[in-house]
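Hi C.,

You asked whether I'd gotten around to modeling the 66-residue construct. I have! Everything is below, sequence then structure, no commentary in between.
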Amino acid sequence: MTSPGRYHLLLSSGGRPVVHGWWNDEATARRKLIRWVGEYGSMPGARITLTDEDTGETLTEWPEEP
């Protein structure tokens, strides 16, 4: 079975997953994150997380924690 992609983008609202995306290229995933902020950023409780699935590291989150 083939992996869907190394870089996982997750949009959640109220702690529940709403939209997922996977890309093999980090730059592409980061561009998608910016697009998702524009498209979904006004959703109540929206949180977008980019994770490297190979390392388990969270690369970035929106909105950023204070």
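If it helps when you're writing up: The chain has a mean pLDDT of 93.

Thanks,
B.
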